[in-house]
Amino acid sequence: MAEIRVENLRKAFGDFVAVQDSSFTVEDGEFLALLGPSGCGKTTTLRMIAGLELPTGGTIRLAGEDVTYNRASARDIAFVFQLFALYPHMNVRKNIGFPLLSQGVPKAEIKRRVEETAKLLQIDHILDKSVSGLAGGDRQRVALGRAIVRRPKCFLMDEPLGTLDAEFRDVMVRELRELHNRIHATTVYVTHDQIEAMAMADKIAVMNHGVIEQFGTPREIYNRPASMYVADFIGSPPMNFIRFTAGLPKGAKAARIGEAEIAMPEIRSEVAPGELALGVRPEHVRFSDASPLRGAIYGSEYLGTNQIVTVETANGLVRARLPADRAYHVGDRVGLTFASERLSLFECGSGRAVPSALNDGALLRETHHG
Ligand code: ATP
Description:
The protein is 25% helix and 34% strand. By secondary structure, it is α+β, with helices and mostly antiparallel strands.
């Protein structure tokens, strides 16, 4: 297995820059998700790592070796486009062994590695069955077996669960992560689905128009978004933005929004007068009659374990994730309070987060609790 180190990676198609000076490291055994909407440069980044696309600039190192201009076949990488295309006329053993057969690996060695792989995936009892008669979960394990039997230095996967229906997707997300926990193969996984990325990855690179907006653990990205783009892309419903206009001195610990003085983590730099947004996750909003920040119930979604209640305020719509045991009525007036130590502050012009004590406070505690 191996570390992947990407430095200043760039790809232009004519005048269009698809990937702009990306730098990141996937440590040995780590699972990285490249996450972002369609067209943001995820696949192009992955194809450059695989050797299927030549970079316009930058370097790619695999296990310390500069492979930037090596052909794909000279990189010890498995590129998985689609996990589920099995050969229906072959049995499980032949399906799993096929990549080794086409590499010319001797028969006895193929047998040994297929059996070892099948054991790892707990499908060794069905090796001689035909794949066409298998249940969905077993078919997926066979497909995974075929991807991992070569034991390459790393895996690159491009939306491998893209065509699955929701139920199988959830199962495969769990299986892929459990498999990763067992084999610790360095993995780069492209997805536009934040839930897949959050559930599987050790690190996430959130991409936007060819740029990595934030690189961090799922917890860092969720709790401490570096930009409004990231805050909005991650989380369902996404982070609320409560917009207001102000300038703030370095060290400010509160923002005045209308009549309300809202406590927030101490900011570490001065903020020039302009449009700002307080960022608050729906689970950090509560209703309190005493709060001067008020609004009217706009709608609610009952989700069983909890409910999402939307409130219309003078500063825009605010969504709260609340216990499900109380019904709210459209038009009712409520006051809002926030978990002040969890608030982010953004400058709307640049979209960037203002550095604040949130960086060490709230998150440090989470790290301790594991
Ligand atoms: P998707 O999930 O839709 O594939 P993506 O984030 O993987 O999205 P890329 O496929 O990397 O995005 O494409 C990034 C941008 O580069 C897109 O605007 C795409 O149109 C453009 N692009 C990709 N390949 C080429 C090419 N061969 N020639 C010209 N433009 C390209």
